[in-house]
Amino acid sequence: MFPATLPIERVFELARSTVFLDDVAVVYEQLDRRVSSRQPVCINRGLCCKFKDYDHGLYVTPVELAYFVGRASQEILVDNGAGQCPYHRDGVCTTRVARPGGCRIFFCDPNAQTWQPDESEDLLNTLKALHEQHKIPYAYVEWLYALEQLWLHRDARKIGGSGSV
Questions:
Q1: Which residues share a beta bridge with 92?
Q2: What is the mean pLDDT of each run of 10 residues along the chain (165 residues)?
Q3: Does the CA dihedral 42-36-93-127 come out positive or negative?
């Protein structure tokens, strides 16, 4: 199976739109409040960010990528072959404000396993609506692949927002 084609041009365009960034910020703020109210506990201090070691992956949509590009406070990084998120360093997420929805929802806390699927499904439905609203094709791609695609096209676009790419 081939990775989905990402609408990179549109991702970079939306990353410069304050209206778009504000729309996604509202969705993430609401999600963060719901997740926080459940009081999940991070037991493994970021082991889940080591996708290869944890034997799972993180998937994102173009809306999430555009938000990440527009709000990340650092340059686009790619995996160095270790199979882990390049923004996870010393047990800490270094791009916490711009992190994708999956990072906001997933906790290895056994008590979190019951509500995570519903939160994920709700988030994806909301993100699909944002894709339609902002006229960006929907795709669901693996995070490390998406970062690589952003990195490959980073010189083609100068990004504004709270960070530069």
A1: 89
A2: 78 97 98 96 84 91 97 89 91 92 92 93 98 96 95 65 37
A3: positive
Task: With respect to residue 2, please indicate whether it lies within any of the assigned structural domains.
Answer: no
Residue with tokens 């499904």: 121
Within-domain flag for 3? no
pLDDT of res. 39: 94
The number of distinct structural domains making up the chain is: 1
Q: Which domain holds residue 139?
A: 8-156
The rounded distance, in Å, linking the Cα atoms of 93 and 110 is 21
Q: Structure pTM?
A: 0.89
Burial of 21 (0-12, 13-18, 19+ CB in 10 A): buried
Question: H/E element holding 114?
Answer: none
Residue 163 lies in a domain: no
Q: Is residue 98 part of a domain?
A: yes
SS percent in the chain: helix, strand, coil, step 5: 55, 5, 40
